[in-house]
Amino acid sequence: MKPLVVFGGTFDPVHVGHLRVALEASEFLDADVRLMPARTPPHRPAPVASAEHRVAMLKRAIEGQKNLSVDARELLRGGPSYTLDTLIELRAELPAQRSIALLLGDDAFAGLPTWHRWRDLFGLAHFVVLTRPNHGSTVSGELDAEIAARRTQDADDIRRSPSGKVLNLAVTPLEVSASAIRAILAAGRDPRWLVPDALVADAAMLAPYRTSTR
Ligand code: ATP
């Protein structure tokens, strides 16, 4: 059974940085990766594109790509979504032994102790932490103490157990961000090769950003 990797984000819009991360995690772990757009990120302004549109862009971006899919459950739930609730839901749907891993940036991981019932998450999923040049964040003593014995660099440790490990994944550095792409589009410039061709090819896909100044 392949591990299931959950890759959450705003995806406003999805770009090649996101897609390479999803693909490289899928290859490294021989896993299925679900891109999971978030409705209400706690510490950020509301997304420019609607929930439905962000799902449409994601689906278009990964069309035909084996091992990648879109899971819109957090958008359908309404209101803020706790990662804990999402993982409890996934656990109820999947065989108990299936490996589940959360894929997230090291800056997000460093903030884990602020998440709702964060220690319980280790009983539900592994953490695969993206390491990117110039994006390093210091892990607090509290988090370090919790994860010291959980660390591994062996993909098999993630594949063979359902939850509880922490693995660092060095991905190809692509210095692309959704905010930079929104700025390019708002300025009437061409985002080609920063976002998937399928989004550039359909004028409707990136239209919400062309009229926005955010
Ligand atoms: P914004 O610029 O609006 O903050 P973003 O490009 O960082 O957006 P998000 O949807 O917030 O995109 O990111 C979702 C996840 O993807 C996060 O865990 C983030 O660390 C990761 N990520 C974003 N851009 C890259 C990139 N270029 N390379 C690797 N990971 C990325």
Strand content: 15-25%
List ligands, each type once.
adenosine-5'-triphosphate
What spatial form do the alpha-carbon principal axes imply? globular
Q: What is the end-to-end distance?
A: 42 Å
Helices and strands, in order, run as: EHEHEHHEHEHEHEHHH
Percentage of residues assigned to helices: 25-40%
Number of helices: 10
Overall residue-averaged pLDDT value = 94
Q: What is the makeup of the main sheet?
A: 7 strands, parallel
Count all strands and give the number: 7
Radius of gyration, rounded? 17 Å
Describe the fold and architecture.
The protein has 214 residues and is α/β, with parallel strands linked by helices. It has helices at residues 16-29, 51-62, 73-77, 83-93, 106-110, 141-147, 155-160, 178-186, 197-201, 203-210, and strands at residues 4-9, 32-37, 68-70, 100-105, 126-131, 151-152, 166-170. The chain has a 7-stranded parallel sheet with strand order 3-2-1-4-5-7-6. The protein is globular and about 50 Å long.
